[in-house]
Every structure is written in structure tokens, then in C-alpha cells.
């Protein structure tokens, strides 16, 4: 038995995180896809392939080749609510190897 009341659970912070919600919703989506969606997306070739997928969609996803796994992931992402869709990280600007960033310290700046 837990010492925490449900509203005091130390796991609530995890449940509230966007990463958790994104992952949890993707797993829910995975088990709710039907054969016609999977065939249309190129994930499986025919309805008989759906039986293998339906038996254990998690194992199927792990064992799928890269092209089929990527097609399945794209299908899952297309079903995510906009708030949970994965957004690529912002690109970072890289300085050339022979340049250092300007130092903001007034000690190293030249007087005007």
C-alpha cells in the first residue's frame, strides 16, 4: 500500500510532462490503428500482415525494418494532437573553428 494519496503521488510530475504524454499517446495510437490505415501508409502489405501486427504491435514495431518502422512512426505522429507533435530542435549556429565568440566581459573589451 502506498503512503501517498493519489493527489500527492510523486509520479504526477512525470505524468504531467510533455514527453510522457507524447509517448503514452503514441502507444495508445499504435494499438488503435486498423489494417486499412497500415496498408495505405505502406506499413504492411496485405490484411494477413495485420494479424501479426495485431498480435503484438509493440514487438512488431521493434522488429520492423527501418522503412516500415518509419512509415508506422509517421502514421502515429499524424494522429497526435497538435500540442503533442514532435518538433525538431532549433538549429544551433556554429562558429568557424578558428573564431571564438566575443567575450561579454568589460575587462577584455577594448576602450572606445
Q: Which helices and strands, and how do they pair?
A:
Blueprint: H1 12-16, H2 18-31, H3 35-40, H4 47-55, H5 57-63, H6 66-78
Share of β-strand residues? under 5%
Gross morphology is elongated
Q: What is the number of E strands?
A: 0
Helix content class: 40-55%
The averaged pLDDT comes out at: 78
- Please summarize the sheet with the most strands: none
Work out the helix count. 6
End-to-end gap: 70 Å
Low-confidence stretches: none
Give the structural class: mainly alpha
Give the C-alpha Rg. Answer: 23 Å
H/E order of the elements?
Answer: HHHHHH
Written overview of the protein:
This protein is mainly alpha-helical. It has a domain at 13-84. 48% of the residues lie in helices and 0% in strands. It has helices at 12-16, 18-31, 35-40, 47-55, 57-63, 66-78. Helix 4 (47-55) packs across helix 5 (57-63). The protein is elongated and about 45 Å long. The termini are far apart. The mean pLDDT is 78.
Brief rundown of the structure:
By secondary structure, this protein is mostly helical. The chain is 48% helix and 0% strand.
Provide tags for this entry.
112 residues, mainly alpha, 48% helix, elongated
Amino acid at each position: 500500500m502506498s503512503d501517498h494519496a493519489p493527489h500527492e503521488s510523486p509520479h504526477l510530475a512525470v505524468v504531467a510532462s510533455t514527453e510522457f504524454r507524447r509517448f503514452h499517446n503514441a502507444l495508445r495510437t499504435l494499438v488503435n490503428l486498423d489494417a486499412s490505415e497500415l496498408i495505405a501508409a505502406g506499413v504492411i502489405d496485405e490484411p494477413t500482415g495485420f494479424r501479426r501486427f495485431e498480435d503484438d504491435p509493440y514487438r512488431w514495431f521493434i522488429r520492423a525494418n527501418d522503412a516500415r518502422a518509419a512509415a508506422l512512426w509517421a502514421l502515429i505522429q499524424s494522429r497526435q494532437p497538435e500540442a503533442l507533435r514532435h518538433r525538431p530542435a532549433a538549429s544551433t549556429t556554429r562558429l568557424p573553428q578558428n573564431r571564438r565568440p566575443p567575450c561579454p566581459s568589460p575587462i577584455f573589451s577594448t576602450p572606445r
